[in-house]
């Protein structure tokens, strides 16, 4: 098959990681894979570095032109994120190509427009990465296939691990961390308040926030200054090579208000880092059956207490980590994810 993957995001977040991982697995399975991506974006560059055919465009007109003049070359068009879906469904009838769409968000039906539902109904195969992501389209009586995101262990750079520890002054402290942009859906304000509460009872940890700036960046920085946490709560920004960071963590925390799945939590499971998370969307699915400690969305007190419990350790923690590691290896393997997508493509 000749497969066209589309993702126009400019940054490097979970959806872009999953797009590239899908492409790697499809190529490994012997399929021809091409990417349509944003010019100068991280995904386009990483895909080119790995030898994929990549067409870069600046916006909607670039997508339209590519599909009109080259779209018929491909057996299946796969919108890996919602930002490319409009053009695909509008042109599928003209160019006679089937469309697959993967939903990677879990916003509720009440927040979705009629335009969104119209586009969804024109998709040939609708995929959601979790039950939480499937709820809105299922409520609209759409047939949804759930194919969870996958994670794969990356090589560890021991020298870089040591360098990061030295650079950020982590060697004498236990390390609590998160990987999330400073955006409202990730709720960094609650996370800051949780760390402030934890710091009132213990002095043996440091918090590292890994992630790009977003709409809450100014709020977070002002709150850190007001609470006197600027030395305790490190804003390390976006970081490549996250596998090295997980080697430094004693606890991984997710405070999200909305989350379709949470690949950063899956990464923590894979690298044997204990997890404290909210019950937002797909995070509750990941944390089920004792794989993580769970708090309600917005509950800073619970997050603080749960982080402290993990830092104190105990025999229960080893069992939690074992369950998490077995789960991610069995349920979120990239080979299984690719097999299920390729089965959908073949049907089309």
Quick summary of this structure?
45% of the residues lie in helices and 18% in strands.
Shape: globular
Mean pLDDT: 95
The string of secondary-structure elements, in order, is EHEHEHEHEHEHEHEHEHEHEHEHEHHH
Q: How would you characterize the largest beta sheet?
A: 7 strands, parallel
General description of the model:
Helices cover 45% and strands 18% of the residues. The relative contact order is 0.12. The strands form 2 sheets. It has a 7-stranded parallel sheet, sandwiched between helices. α8 packs parallel to α9. α6 (131-139) links the parallel β6 and β7. The chain starts with a strand and ends with a helix. It has 15 helices and 13 strands. The chain is α/β, with parallel strands linked by helices and 348 residues long.
Q: How is the secondary structure organized here?
A:
Layout: E1 2-7, H1 14-28, E2 32-38, H2 42-49, E3 53-57, H3 60-70, E4 76-79, H4 85-95, E5 99-103, H5 114-121, E6 125-128, H6 131-139, E7 144-146, H7 158-167, E8 174-179, H8 188-199, E9 205-210, H9 217-227, E10 233-237, H10 242-246, E11 251-254, H11 263-270, E12 275-278, H12 282-287, E13 293-295, H13 300-312, H14 315-331, H15 334-347
Parallel strand pairs: 1-2, 1-4, 2-3, 4-5, 5-6, 6-7, 8-9, 8-11, 9-10, 11-12, 12-13
Helix pairs in contact: 1-2, 1-15, 3-4, 8-9, 8-13
């Amino acid at each position: 098959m000749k497969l066209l993957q589309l993702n126009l995001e400019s940054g490097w977040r979970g959806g872009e990681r999953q797009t590239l991982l899908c492409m790697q697995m499809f190529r490994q399975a012997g399929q021809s894979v091409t990417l349509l991506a944003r010019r100068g974006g991280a995904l386009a560059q990483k895909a080119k570095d790995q030898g994929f055919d990549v067409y870069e465009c600046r916006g909607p007109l670039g997508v339209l032109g590519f599909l009109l003049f080259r779209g018929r070359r491909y057996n299946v068009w796969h919108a890996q994120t919602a930002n490319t879906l409009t053009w695909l469904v509008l042109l599928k009838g003209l160019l006679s190509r089937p469309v697959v769409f993967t939903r990677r968000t879990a916003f509720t039906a009440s927040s979705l427009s009629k335009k969104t539902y119209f586009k969804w109904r024109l998709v040939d195969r609708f995929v959601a990465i979790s039950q939480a992501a499937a709820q809105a389209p299922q409520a609209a009586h759409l047939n949804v296939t759930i194919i969870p995101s996958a994670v794969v262990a990356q090589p560890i750079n021991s020298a870089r691990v040591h360098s990061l520890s030295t650079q950020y002054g982590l060697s004498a402290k236990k390390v609590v961390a998160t990987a999330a942009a400073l955006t409202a859906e990730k709720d960094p304000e609650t996370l800051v308040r949780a760390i402030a509460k934890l710091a009132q009872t213990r002095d043996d940890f440091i918090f590292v926030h890994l992630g790009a700036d977003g709409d809450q960046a100014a709020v977070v920085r002002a709150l850190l200054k007001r609470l006197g946490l600027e030395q305790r709560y490190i804003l390390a920004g976006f970081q490549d090579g996250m596998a090295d960071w997980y080697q430094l963590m004693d606890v991984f925390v997710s405070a999200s208000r909305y989350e379709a799945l949470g690949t950063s939590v899956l990464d923590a499971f894979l690298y044997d880092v204990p997890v404290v998370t909210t019950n937002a969307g797909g995070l509750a699915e990941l944390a089920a059956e004792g794989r993580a400690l769970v708090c309600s969305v917005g509950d800073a007190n619970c997050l603080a207490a749960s982080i402290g419990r993990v830092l104190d350790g105990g025999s229960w923690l080893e069992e939690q980590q074992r369950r998490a590691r077995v789960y991610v290896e069995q349920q979120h393997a990239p080979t299984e994810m690719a097999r299920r997508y390729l089965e959908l493509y073949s049907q089309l």
